[in-house]
Design a protein that fits this description.
By secondary structure, the chain is an all-alpha fold. The chain contains ten helices and no strands. Helix 5 crosses helix 9 and helix 9 packs antiparallel against helix 10. The protein is globular. The model has no long low-confidence stretch (mean pLDDT 94).
């Protein structure tokens, strides 16, 4: 019988908080059970496994992240939308490092495809890029460029990888300018 007060949503939220505190890789069923003062077995009536728990954290974090991005880009287009998207992405990644790490794990695509957050992510991202006149297969290539640029920058910044004295925000703004130019002058597939 499930322990009173424990629910899958409550466990996942606590696991996401734990990820931000100690790192996503340190989130375990045992660590989460200790947080609630219960035995590991008590959690298995709410989550199937560690993989299930981590997948749920990834889905939660992805939803939170796209909610922030959607709010930031609402009513914007072109470079303004791109900068708002990028800034919301970076802010989430830096403010919630464990949750952000969860968004980078491989998740079963059949599971993800059925989530509202995934559909919303595709709508927001592709909608922003369509303002640049992009269509498939260029949309997919542009999404990959943005994701790899944003992720790489955030990972390096979070890890202290930018040692030059120049303000990292100024470099971030230049990266957004460069991405805007790349998207504006995209080498379209013929």
């Amino acid at each position: 019988m499930p322990r009173a007060g424990l629910t899958p949503d409550r466990l996942v939220a606590a696991a996401a908080d734990l990820a931000d505190e100690v790192g996503f890789d340190s989130v375990t069923v045992s660590a989460l059970a200790r947080r609630f003062g219960v035995k590991d077995a008590s959690l298995y009536s709410h989550v199937r496994s560690l993989k299930d728990l981590r997948t749920r954290v990834a889905l939660l974090a992805g939803g939170e992240m796209i909610d922030r991005i959607a709010a930031a880009v609402a009513g914007r287009a072109g470079k303004d939308a791109l900068a708002a998207f990028a800034d919301a992405y970076r802010e989430y990644a830096l403010r919630h490092p464990g949750r952000y790490a969860a968004t980078q794990i491989p998740v079963d695509q059949d599971l993800v495809a059925d989530t509202p957050a995934f559909r919303r992510t595709a709508e927001i991202t592709y909608g922003m890029l369509r303002a640049y006149g992009l269509e498939e297969p260029d949309l997919t290539d542009a999404v990959r460029l943005l994701r790899s640029t944003f992720h790489g920058y955030c990972a390096l910044e979070a890890g202290g990888g930018f040692g030059a004295p120049r303000d990292v925000r100024l470099s971030w703004d230049k990266a957004i300018d460069a991405l805007h130019l790349a998207l504006t002058h995209w080498p379209r597939e013929t």
